[in-house]
Amino acid sequence: MADAVMAAGRAHTVCVTARGTPQLWSWGNGQNGQLGHDDRESRKRPARLGKEMFGGSPAVMVCCGGKHTLVLTAVGCIWSCASGLCGRLGHDDTADQLVLTLVGTEGFREAQIVMVAAGGAHSVALGAEERVWTWGYDRRGQLGHNNQENRLMPRLLTGEALGGSVAVLVSAGRLHTVAVTIEGALWVWGGGEYGQLGLGHKHDRLAPTLMGTEGAFGGLQVLTVACFCMADHTQGGK
Fold first, then answer.
1. Numbers of helices and strands, H then E, in the chain
2. For residue 125, what are the CA distances in angstroms to 30, 69, 154, 164, 215?
3. For residues 190 and 49, what is the distance between their CA atoms, to the nearest angstrom?
4. DSSP E strands: which ranges in 74-204?
5. Residue 216 has pLDDT above 90, yes or no
6. CB 14 within 8 A of CB 65
7. Which of 37, 96, 177, 201 is the most exposed place for a label (fewest CB within 10 A)?
8. What local confidence, expressed as pLDDT, does residue 234 receive?
9. DSSP 3-state percent helix, strand, coil across the chain (nearest 5)
10. What is the pTM assigned to this prediction?
């Protein structure tokens, strides 16, 4: 692990420091509880969260959505806090959580999670077996289940959602989601009104759609991709 792992949301920041025992810090806008300190206060300087959190397992990854926070621990569990609107926290309700709360593992069928992503109001998880789960707000199809139904708990994408391939990386924008497969192909879904899906049009996609890598990237494999939770664009790396 690097000396620090950081994530920035719409108006808050979360950081994991790695020297010695990993510690979690947060600062910025806390009006929705996204800082995880059991209050709605904003903080102008980093404030450390309690060491006793996460059942003794250290945090290894953090993600900040528009108004929520996700933390992934070393044992592959996800903890979430802040606004629960539309089910983005994954707790089978829409209640706010002012402290980081464990997302039930039953939604992941006991799979170990290795990566998380937070969008404007939805969340994405990648399992050790390269399966993808999504939950939260789905007005533009950003959950990838070929409908526009909000999900209060993690729901697994179908086995054929990515053309039968497996994902190795996921990222979430404000209203769209992307995934890179093991072959280096880029799949996109959700809102497309600004062309953020890269498909040559501005239509939404309710299910994962393969971007034409031959035309878009000259046949090169995609290694990484990033979206900002409060913006409508996508950036890939070759």
1. 1, 18
2. 24, 13, 8, 18, 29
3. 34
4. 78-82, 97-102, 113-118, 122-127, 132-136, 151-156, 167-172, 176-181, 186-190
5. no
6. no
7. 201
8. 54
9. 5, 40, 50
10. 0.92
